[in-house]
Inverse folding.
């Protein structure tokens, strides 16, 4: 995915989001945990609500190939908050996704919230 931005923070957040889809990161709990805020939560495309520990467990055990992301858009909501929206495609479904990233006390960007919504009959 060739997303670029003139804003280095936005570029960093997009790169971090894409790392979360990398199987090598997903299967290494410590690597994935570095990208998740301590208060992370998700409303999954499956309808399940995930917390930080449950999503880390799922990612470590999940063997499906990563989805293909496209249509990435980023909006800076504040100095330390960035919203990403994008679409992912897998053979069995397409989902619209949003991620809220935040930075605390000058530390690294970490994902605080994620939501996936299945896009019915997407082409």
């Amino acid at each position: 995915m060739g997303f670029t931005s003139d804003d280095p923070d936005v570029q960093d957040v997009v790169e971090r989001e894409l790392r979360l889809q990398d199987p090598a990161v997903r299967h290494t709990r410590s690597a994935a945990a570095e990208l998740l805020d301590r208060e992370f939560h998700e409303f999954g495309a499956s309808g399940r609500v995930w917390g930080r520990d449950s999503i880390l467990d799922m990612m470590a055990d999940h063997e499906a190939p990563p989805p293909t992301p496209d249509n990435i858009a980023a909006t800076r909501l504040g100095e330390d908050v960035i919203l990403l929206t994008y679409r992912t495609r897998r053979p069995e479904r397409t989902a619209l996704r949003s991620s809220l990233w935040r930075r605390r006390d000058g530390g690294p960007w970490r994902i605080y919230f994620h939501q996936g919504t299945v896009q019915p009959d997407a082409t």
Observations:
- The first strand starts at residue 36 and ends at 43.
- The radius of gyration is 14 Å.
- Residues 8-19 form the longest helix (12 residues).
- The mean pLDDT is 92.
